[in-house]
Design a protein that fits this description.
The complex is a heterodimer of chains A (495) and B (326).
Chain A lengths: L17 E3 L2 E2 L4 H8 L4 H18 L2 E3 L8 E3 L2 E8 L1 H25 L4 H4 L5 H5 L21 E3 L1 E4 L5 E5 L8 H14 L1 H7 L7 H12 L9 E4 L8 H11 L2 E3 L4 E4 L2 E6 L2 E4 L2 E4 L3 H4 L15 H6 L4 E3 L10 H4 L2 H9 L11 E2 L3 H9 L4 E5 L8 E3 L5 H13 L4 E5 L5 E6 L2 E10 L1 E4 L3 E3 L4 E5 L13 E8 L18
Parallel strand pairs in A: 5-25, 9-10, 9-14, 14-15
Antiparallel strand pairs in A: 1-2, 3-4, 6-22, 7-8, 11-12, 12-13, 16-19, 17-18, 17-19, 20-21, 21-24, 22-23, 24-25
Chain B lengths: L2 H34 L9 H10 L2 H7 L5 H10 L7 H14 L6 H15 L3 H7 L1 H22 L4 H29 L9 H13 L3 H8 L5 H10 L7 H18 L7 H15 L2 H7 L1 H24 L10
Helix pairs in contact in B: 1-2, 1-5, 1-8, 1-9, 1-10, 2-9, 5-6, 6-8, 7-8, 9-13, 9-16, 13-14, 14-16, 15-16
């Protein structure tokens, strides 16, 4: 019998597994009992090794830019699942659906009548100065009134265990392939536990995504062709692009495979040009069409935007969604929920200061060492100042940047992100985590029961991005009524 | 299938075949040199220089190296990163192509190419010298044969497979003509040696480098001589490394490809490859040798290049204006 958690410290953070030292939360009791049955740490490490090996041989990797060989690395995977009880999940689901609906209304509005600007709820210049606002799309009515189809909303839990929205990812959110692969591995390593816990399946995601893409096709096409547009093999998410295309049974194409003739999109096949009706694009607006956006883009397709405007091809996500996941616009999402839906937000934001507001700006500049400052247009943990961990010189550097360009920054208090036990070397320690669920907005709003739990594997680190030393965990959303009970017989490791 | 993907498969096959044949070309030369050394200085660089002409890399070699020796030529042809025709570069390109289409080929195929590449990445001339040319090159050949074995038993016979076959056999037709040419270059200084014991040993080496020695013995029963060996490697209709066999296989692959896309049934590539096949069927080896074998081998390489161009124009880079639309 092993007690892996003997020296486990909570350090004052909200812990997903333990309510107090030695007292697991009810939905983790079964897991704790299961772990207690293991012989020793060696057994757990053997399982961890088995998982790592499987990832390597399946080629579940991402590409590292800094490495001149363009090496593929495994996204580190931690065996200890993050468990979410049913009622907790249904609240998250309601909050995420509410947010998705409000964001869709917002995009429909600013690319349409702009009521929210005219009524002064959001300052016009905030929208128009956003790098991701596409004035070209104002007045263009998208199919089915769906202005955004896929959102990966990042959630965190604060010191009190309260879920808060950290940011929305409305352009090309990635990571869902890891969710599916993580579950495949966990099914091999902890099959019994998954069954006993009645974990809700995530495997329907590719079906749901394909159904959404088909729903977007121009109405007159009886058998629409859907493709996935990738920037190519050197993109860090290429594994995911190939994975999703394979799961959905659609072609994965690069910009050079597509041509536009008479405002129709075709792909170049060995036997001639074949029409394309829906493009699940994994490249940013900027690179889509060199005749409209960046001229130097080699990834895109000349004429694509015209074909899109002519209604001959659907794009997922549509053009211009980025304006709503701008970090400054994030501040206004609760306002959008009240304005469009007449509801209070179910999931609160993280407290946020806008440096474009004079009052907030003064507060930010006075409190830099205590705040996290984010550049509004950067993703992946780049362009960020974590005040409490920053050197004085870095703080001063940001002070200069913020003063020079207030529109470009927001600040938030440092959060004591919740922690979850993780295998660290040969012991188990608490590590900070977040959660990215995937929300599909098609005929209805569909949310995969689960999501990508990212874990900051470096001790004390709050940054969960894979580019910054983060890893991931499987996320177990439990079925209603899956009450914790004593774990049953021992599981055999499948090797 | 997407033109880009077809092209990746096609080139992957060409690179793999080229790597294997480069190993064969170096192999036959190493064997010929051994035979020559009875009457020449062991270090005569001339005996390695011919490889550069045959592979078409003499210019690049001249820019990269100061002197011609076994060491520099072998380094250039096997390991040189800056030589796009080196075995390393070919395998590395084939792997890159395989990586792009990993979702379309069996994972065993990808894993084997990847392993092949990773092994080769750590090899260098010292490793080659340590094992000796025959052992080292036979390992390279085995790796690529293994890959073909895996591919044959794993890949569905669809469009992708036929582009793989097309690339592989066009490349082979070209490369076998170059292997024959190596012997021609070696013979240049000593045409009077034709028919000598040495000559016979050398032709046996050429056959062995194409794994054709035993097959030749079984098929012809006759004595080894220039005419019979050239006839065998160029025109035999059963030996899978003969030029004729390769051209016929390429023609077959093209027919399989166009079977699925009937509107291109008549195209320049099919016409050219059929012409080349018909030409070979009419060929009288004695006449070819009399009027210049080297020139004729050049002619075959040019014909194969024309087929390649046509394949590109018909299936891959065709102009979109006026292209067939599904």
């Amino acid at each position: 019998m092993a007690d892996f958690f003997q020296n486990y410290a909570l350090d004052g953070f909200y812990d997903e597994m333990f309510a107090a030292p030695d007292r697991p939360r009810p939905h983790y009791e079964r897991l704790a009992a299961r772990f207690a049955k293991m012989e020793n740490m060696g057994e757990l490490l053997a399982r961890q090794q088995h998982a790592d090996q499987t990832f390597l041989s399946r080629g579940v990797t991402f590409t590292v830019y800094s490495d001149d060989r363009g090496t593929e690395k495994i996204f580190p995977f931690d065996l200890i699942p993050r468990i979410i009880p049913a009622q907790e999940w249904s609240r998250l689901e309601a909050g995420l659906a509410q947010r998705m609906t409000a964001l869709n209304s917002f995009l429909a509005d600013i690319y349409g009548p702009q009521r929210i600007l005219r009524e002064g709820v959001i300052p016009r210049e905030m929208v128009e100065s956003s790098r991701n606002f596409r004035p070209e799309m104002v007045g263009f009515a998208v199919p089915h009134n769906l202005y955004v189809h896929i959102n990966g909303t990042d959630l965190v839990r604060d010191e009190h265990g309260e879920y808060r929205v950290l940011e929305d990812n409305l352009r090309t959110p990635s990571g869902v392939s890891y969710v599916l692969e993580n579950r495949q591995i966990m099914k091999r390593v902890f099959s019994r536990l998954i069954r006993d816990y009645r974990v809700r399946p995530v495997e329907l995601y590719p079906n749901d995504l394909l159904a959404l893409l088909l729903h977007l096709a121009p109405a007159h096409v009886p058998e629409p062709t859907v493709v996935l547009l990738t920037p190519g093999i050197y993109n860090s998410a290429y594994f995911e692009h190939a994975f999703l295309a394979r799961q959905m049974g659609i072609e994965i194409v690069e910009g050079s495979d597509l041509v536009v003739e008479n405002d129709r999109v075709y792909m170049r096949r060995t036997g001639g040009l074949a029409p394309v009706h829906v493009i699940y694009r994994r490249i940013d607006d900027d690179f889509l069409d060199p005749t409209v956006f960046r001229e130097d883009s080699l990834l895109g397709v000349p004429g694509l935007v015209r074909a899109y405007r002519a209604g001959n091809v659907a794009l997922c996500n549509p053009i211009g969604t980025g304006v709503a996941d701008d970090k400054a616009m994030y501040y206004y999402v609760p306002h959008m929920i009240r304005f469009y839906l007449g509801q209070e937000p179910i999931l609160p934001n993280v407290e946020t200061y806008l440096s474009s507001h004079p009052v907030d700006l003064k507060f930010i500049l006075d409190n830099l060492p205590r705040l996290v400052v984010k550049s509004v247009n950067e993703a992946g943990g780049y362009g960020m100042l974590v005040g409490p961990h920053a050197a004085r010189a870095q703080i001063e550097e940001f002070r200069g940047k913020i003063t020079a360009n207030p529109r470009n920054f927001i600040a938030q208090p440092t959060l004591g992100l919740s922690r979850c036990p993780a295998v660290c070397g040969d012991s188990i320690e608490g590590r900070h985590i977040d959660l990215r669920p995937y929300i599909l907005n098609g005929e209805t709003v569909k949310i995969m029961p689960g999501g990508l739990t990212r874990v900051a594997l470096r001790k004390g680190s709050l940054v969960v991005n894979s580019s910054q030393g983060g890893g991931s965990k499987d996320t177990w959303v439990l079925s209603a009524g899956a009450v914790p009970a004593q774990a049953q017989g021992p599981e055999k490791i499948i090797v | 299938m997407l033109s880009r993907v077809a092209n990746l498969v096609y080139w992957m096959a060409r690179y793999l075949e080229r790597a294997e044949n480069t190993a064969r070309i170096v192999d036959v030369n190493a064997a010929l040199v051994l035979d020559l050394q009875s009457r020449r200085d062991a270090d005569d660089p001339k005996s390695w220089e011919s490889l550069l002409y045959v592979s078409g890399g003499e210019e690049l070699f001249g820019r990269l190296y100061d002197e011609v020796s076994e060491r520099t030529v072998v380094e250039f042809m096997l390991f040189e990163r800056r030589n796009p025709g080196s075995i390393f570069s070919c395998i590395s390109q084939a792997r890159e192509n395989a990586r792009c289409i990993r979702d379309q080929i069996a994972s065993e195929v990808w894993e084997h190419i990847n392993t092949f590449y990773l092994k080769l990445r750590d090899d260098d001339y010292a490793r080659y010298a340590q094992l000796g040319p025959f052992e080292y090159l036979s390992r390279i050949k085995t790796q690529s044969q293994l890959l073909y074995g895996i591919a044959e038993s794993m890949l569905p016979r669809n469009h992708a497979w036929w582009f793989f076959e097309l690339g592989r056999f066009l490349e082979r037709a070209d490369n076998v003509s170059r292997i024959l040419d190596v012997k021609y270059f070696m013979l240049l200084p000593a045409l009077d040696a034709v028919g000598s014991a040495l000559d016979i040993i050398q032709w046996a080496s050429v056959l062995r480098s194409c794994s054709g020695f035993e097959a030749f013995r079984k098929s012809r029963r006759g004595q080894l001589n220039l005419e019979r060996v050239v006839d065998y490697l160029m025109l035999d209709d059963a030996f899978p490394r003969s030029i004729y066999f390769s051209v016929r296989e390429a023609e077959h692959a093209l027919a399989q490809i166009t079977a699925e896309i009937p509107h291109v049934a008549e195209n320049a590539a099919t016409t050219l490859v059929a012409e080349l096949r018909a030409e070979l069927e009419q060929l009288v080896v004695r006449e070819v040798i009399a009027s210049g074998l080297h020139e004729y081998l050049d002619h075959i390489q040019a014909k194969v290049a024309e087929v390649h161009e046509a394949v590109q124009n018909v299936f891959i880079t065709y102009p979109t204006a006026g292209a067939y639309k599904w």
